[in-house]
Amino acid sequence: MAFHYVARGVICDGNHILLVRAVGDNMTFLPGGHIEFGESAPVALARELFEEASISANVGEFIGAAENEWLLDGQPQAEINLLFEVETGLSHRDPVVSNETHLEFFWVPCKEIEQWNLFPESLRALVKQQQTPKQAFWGSGIPLKSV
Question: What range(s) does the Nudix hydrolase domain occupy (predicted)?
């Protein structure tokens, strides 16, 4: 089993949100990446955005968290995604070029998020709101099991 501790940014311009995916994959994610040991989530997010796409980011308010689990090559995977508002000055009219050949970034209209296979799936409702919730968001893709 592998556990992933991840910081992700909600980067919006108007009614568009920035997504990322592995080239050739149909699943998309919010931009960000793994938090290294001893690193705070906002610092990790700013670092990942700059490493992956030379995005200079002002990481803002904590929005919430989303957990998820899945199988990868038959092995159980689990993740906690910490979500933050991010200001970048980017425009949805301008492409975001990846520094990593295996990733591609693109803008999508928030109201069309269901068509873009965003994971964790629980984030789709958050994106459709097009505004930050008044209390911290919690989303889960893990089925509730009785103890």
Answer: 1-132
